[in-house]
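Q: Hi! First time doing this. I have a protein sequence and I read that you can turn it into a structure. Is that right? Here it is:
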Amino acid sequence: MKILWAVSSVGKGHIMRDIAIVNQLKILVNVDIDWLAPDPAGNFLRNRGYNVLESSSRLAGSGKIYEQIFSGCAEEFNLMKYTRADTQLHKHDFRISQTAWKENNYDVIVADEAFWLLTGFASRWGKKPAPFIFLTDFIGTKAMRSSLSDLFTAWYNNLKFSFSHMGPDLYLYVGDAEEIPDENLGFLLPGRRKWAQKHCRFVKPIVGFDPDAIEGKCALRKKLNLPEDNKLFLATIGPEGKYEHRIAIIEQVFENLKSDFPDAYFMIICSEAGTKKWIHYHQFLDNLYQYFAASDFVITQSGYGKVTELSALGVGFIAIPLDYHFEQEYVMGHRLDRYGIGKLVTMRDHNPQDIAKIVHQLMNLEMLPVEVDKGIEVANIILYSSR
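A: Yes, that's right. Below is the predicted 3D structure, encoded as structure tokens:
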């Protein structure tokens, strides 16, 4: 079985769930996968031995344009800027992608929020050479600012999106219908939830581990060389824009918590180390979910992947979005309300003292884990679709 797998490179959540699906596929069938993955996802895959097509380096949108737009941002990450720029590159990236299936025969094409392929096939820019499966965890865009430019961008993008079901042979929504905001995509446009219920097949959230097989907290801490008897607070901070500002805020949150838990162990996962000698800084931790499971509380950026892992583990957490980032703020807020786990907290509305108080409030609450899948469900769907 040969698959062309295209993936968005905005964040690592997509690529991690795709790897989980691929691992399950390999158990079911002999599979050969070519990846269309713009950097930074392309580099992530190459470093782990996956076959990333050379044409990936010529893709101009997705993570590349995302980094260009937000590299200098400190506080506001308005996705309408990204949406305007990225959609203009869809035709270019679709043409680049066509070289892959002109040079190879594929049994199926899978796209995880690779919107340039979704737009291309829905717009009939080229004939599908194989069954096309599209995965997503959000429906449409939303203007988080009330400027006329942003409002029009969101409406026009959602107008085109409302016809996107014409592209895939199978449109998979990772999650359930109830987590999708029950409001219209825009003036004279269909409702987000109703559109998804009509055009999508719903699958369980995906993680790359079995939550039931995770060791107990004490055993995990011993294995990970972490203190066994102290409170453990962990924070993750993404590399977007001027992330030093966000590191400084989390350090202040930890300072507030340290006054109440003087013997606690504090960890921050971020691109560069901060200045507090009592905080343990790490650029990267392999199998981060194990550190989540070993923690008493986690503060994370509200990206899909980490929030899903924490929800599956039942670990208390708050999710802090990049300000005005509609996926991390608007979509994730509805998702957490549906899960009944974790809490979304914006930095623009809460100072470090406020955030520390919220951590206190949530620490002793029981968090019921969310039911997830290791990728088996989607792997079987892909296998069936290729026949």
